[in-house]
């Protein structure tokens, strides 16, 4: 067969604020690949089906000299993130053509992988859409599942406040907290998102662009658990309205990713209220919770016990836009890029 | 015997910034007491020997409508804090004249107590000065001892940064960390304090009024443990220079007690560096560590294994000044008020 274009999303320049498609990332079709003859050197060839756009990607779009919690992207090279693909050819006995694989993939239509290190073959007995494996049944789902178990110390009758509650992590936390018998206060950035979060069973849901978080928490709190995806003003409001011995799960800080963010004024209450703030990355919790997660969550999603929504863009050429909208909070549900059908 | 004056330090008004002796607190001698005939109603009469001035007292000097971690002082009534006294008369079989008692006492020369609830009879086999029991062998010592064991997870070769390192808590932390084989970076507010902290064995000690904390930590860090007595800029510098999985022991926040304090800019690093911040009050840790503390610490102080310094004011009429200087950091060592000799 003749070589085909191997579209890629390249990291082109460090954004000063939000990442700009066509400027800070560029979709490129200059590379070609011969799917029949590309050498595999004992590895395997994958056709990318789904890629994920997640808030943390912004932290990779930086000067590599600046330290951060994730490696910087390299200019001129494809950005990378979690994805699912189908194996087209394999020279590795552990995996065969037709198998599906999840891993940290470069944003390319076709990729060759030397071995299974860092990847996982997905059985998907539950026949979930493959995109679920970068969302509710993927890294965001693992984040919610593992950290809720590790840090929240959920107690019936207590109150939790969840930010970014319509996102893939927040929407699971709302459902976990609800199942644990907690009062759930949740915020989201549009009325449409608010309606979805209400449908998940949250007790109090508000659009933080229309209603001040501090006012809602003053009325509905104090809060025993704060699930922080955003930082800044929400964190301040949570501190001001925290109960004694509150647990703050510091999961993300999107208000600080695309600029300086708002300084936090209320840290002085931490010792007096005996609050613990747990900063974490999901990778540290996977050795403890990873296998339980795959045993439990896809099945619960398939049964309809756990709900999620997705915001899918079709075509790798739209990946830069998906990333931007994810940073701006314009996505409604988990941001995914459908690169190809099977 | 004729009645004697029973001097008291009264809470007179809520300070707007620092507490002002003669204005926000007033020393008053209008009350008298007849030591021979005052009715005890089954309790006992104590002559106050020592009272303590601690940073947290500022938080009690507020409008009672404002919530905080400690009850507000009542206007017109004596302020109160930890002290040691000697029993003059007793109708309680559990305690007799000549015994020494530690408790949360009103700032008065003589007090009657209904029972031993909240007080502890001090055996003092080690014959420490009584003032030690409100410092290294009292609440500040308990704070350092219990929280170091509970939260620091000290590991040999790691680095700790201690603020207010010449104070009664900080100076113990320097010594505990040193004994645990850590590299100790410490800050204090005068060259005299710096010299004392150096003499305790800290590796790097600086005067934060002359040298920027962030610069020292950038050079000598990253830090694995941060002992926070102050908050604000020091907390920001510690966040910026924290190692992965750092433990922040949030013990106090004096930069926020007498005004708004400096907002914290670097909270966004908490999740990525997987930092845990532990807010606590010593009272929550005493059930676990209290008895070990009294078994271990006074003996180690008596042996000279643990060192401390004291800044003593003689006379209850100077208690308001001791409290002010403590808030301003002008004390050199643990602030105590010697109310009377035995």
From TrEMBL, chains A, B:
Domain Enoyl reductase (ER): from-to ranges: 44-337
Pfam families: ADH_N_2, ADH_zinc_N
Keyword terms of this UniProt record: Oxidoreductase
This protein's record includes keyword NADP: no
Cross-referenced InterPro entries: ADH-like_C, ADH_N_2, ER, GroES-like_sf, MDR_fam, NAD(P)-bd_dom_sf
Keyword Ribosomal protein applies: no
Residue ranges crossing the lipid bilayer per the database entry: none
Gene Ontology terms for molecular function: oxidoreductase activity, acting on the CH-CH group of donors, NAD or NADP as acceptor
Protein name according to UniProt: Enoyl reductase (ER) domain-containing protein
Organism from which the protein derives: Phanerochaete carnosa (strain HHB-10118-sp) (White-rot fungus)
């Amino acid at each position: 067969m003749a070589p085909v274009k191997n579209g890629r999303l390249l990291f082109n320049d460090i954004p000063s604020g939000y990442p700009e498609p066509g400027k800070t990332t560029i979709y490129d079709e200059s590379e070609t690949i011969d799917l029949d003859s590309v050498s595999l050197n004992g590895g395997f060839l994958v056709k990318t089906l789904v890629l994920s756009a997640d808030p943390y990607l912004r932290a990779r779009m930086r000067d590599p000299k600046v330290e951060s919690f994730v490696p910087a992207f390299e200019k001129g090279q494809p950005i990378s993130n979690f994805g699912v693909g189908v194996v087209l050819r394999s020279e590795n006995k552990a995996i065969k053509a037709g198998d599906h694989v999840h891993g940290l993939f470069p944003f390319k239509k076709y990729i060759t992988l030397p071995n299974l290190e860092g990847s996982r073959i997905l059985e998907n007995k539950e026949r979930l859409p493959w995109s679920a494996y970068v969302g509710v049944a993927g890294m965001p789902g693992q984040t919610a599942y593992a950290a809720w178990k590790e840090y929240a110390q959920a107690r019936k009758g207590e109150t939790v406040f969840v930010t970014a509650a319509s996102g893939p992590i927040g929407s699971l936390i709302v459902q976990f907290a609800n199942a644990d018998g907690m009062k759930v206060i949740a915020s989201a950035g549009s009325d449409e998102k608010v309606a979805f979060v209400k449908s998940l069973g949250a007790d109090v849901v508000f659009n933080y662009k229309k209603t001040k978080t501090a006012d809602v928490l003053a009325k509905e709190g104090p809060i025993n658990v704060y699930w922080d995806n955003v930082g800044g003003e929400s964190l301040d409001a949570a501190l001001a309205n925290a109960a004694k011995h509150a647990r703050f799960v510091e999961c993300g800080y999107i208000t600080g990713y695309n600029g300086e963010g708002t300084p936090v004024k209320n840290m002085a209450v931490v010792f007096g209220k005996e609050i613990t703030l747990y900063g974490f990355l999901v990778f540290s919790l996977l050795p403890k919770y990873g296998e339980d997660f795959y045993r439990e969550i896809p099945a619960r999603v398939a049964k309809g016990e756990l709900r999620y929504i997705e915001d899918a863009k079709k075509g790798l050429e739209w990946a830069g836009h998906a990333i931007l909208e994810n940073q701006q909070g314009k996505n409604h549900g988990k941001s995914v890029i459908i690169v190809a059908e099977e």
